[in-house]
């Protein structure tokens, strides 16, 4: 197969400027304005490369919508407030959330909808999904563009798409893992000149074996700290749902998925989704640096069941025939079972101090 246009460009960049950090490679492969994965492809859904929870079941977005309503009430019903979603994909979560939120017209009356999305293609999808709904969105490339004020912020499978760097334990140092070219001129992992300084390495990671890989997500941490600062200053709450670990650890989680299959992350850049596990401990540390309160993370299965997933499934199923009920049961299993999304996915909330959102507070 001939190389992708982006592969040509990335190889030329490396020939001219030397190897790329994994973060720079990720940013190019996902975000290149012309050929980046999210810019050019129909990524999400059964016909795309991966399926996310809102695409599995309408119940996911509905429960998140009810969480947003409940959190807004706990915040003292600010009017107006900003309802923000980071990386809304096809807009399915927000469409389902707003439908469920119709039980509280005062919530919808107070909400100003802001979507943070870099992909024009996905923005068009989101416009379609939300057309005819109760709120008209405003789009932004970056969170910083949204004017400050009380906010309820939702992020499902957003932080996992942000660039990470990798470091490998070699000769007692943490050396940066980079993307360079092998003897045949093909993309290959290698070691760069950069070294992680002692102050940047979590202390408990001293004494790990030679060859171990450590990941750092400075972009995600900086974004979390910024959002947490705003939440502390202006009031609000953020809900982050992603697959990842509750505690920082070592290991290589950099991965690529194309047509629902894992592939080599260096194979055909721009044609596969690239992600890494979210380090929730690092995100929590970033939020606490801004003096925000952190709740969780808890496993997605526990979170959804605590919010009433089983009851909602029962009510939906009551109007259905047997096949419909079997479909709903299957959706619940996909969202909560340990073999599927139930335990790998975690949910963490960040709020201004003093607020405890559901299901952490009764
Ligand atoms: N939340 C959706 C989509 C997840 S895919 C769902 O659950 O189905 C990741 C989303 O984040 C996509 O919409 C992608 O275009 C967007 N995205 C990735 N990096 C981004 C960035 N740096 N800024 C804004 N949006 C980004």
Task: Give an overview in words.
The protein has helices at about 5-15, 20-30, 35-40, 55, 60-75, 90-100, 105-110, 120-130, 220-235, 280-290, 300-305, 310-320, 320-335; strands at about 20, 80-85, 110-115, 140, 150-155, 165-170, 175-180, 185-195, 215, 235-245, 255-260, 260-265, 275, 280, 295-300, 345-350. With about 350 residues, it is α/β, with parallel strands linked by helices. It has a domain at about 40-165 and about 220-250 and about 270-350: 3-Layer(aba) Sandwich (Rossmann fold). Strands 2, 3, 4, 5, 10, 14, 15 and 16 form an eight-stranded mixed β-sheet that branches. Strands 1, 6, 7, 8 and 9 form a five-stranded antiparallel β-sheet that branches. Strands 12-11-13 form a three-stranded antiparallel β-sheet. Helix 8 links the parallel strand 3 and strand 4 (about 140). Helix 5 (about 60-75) crosses helix 6 (about 90-100) and helix 12 runs antiparallel to helix 13 (about 320-335). The relative contact order is 0.15. The model has no long low-confidence stretch (mean pLDDT about 95). It binds S-adenosyl-L-homocysteine. S-adenosyl-L-homocysteine binds near residues 38, 88, 118, 158 and 161. The site of S-adenosyl-L-homocysteine has 18 residues, from helix 4.
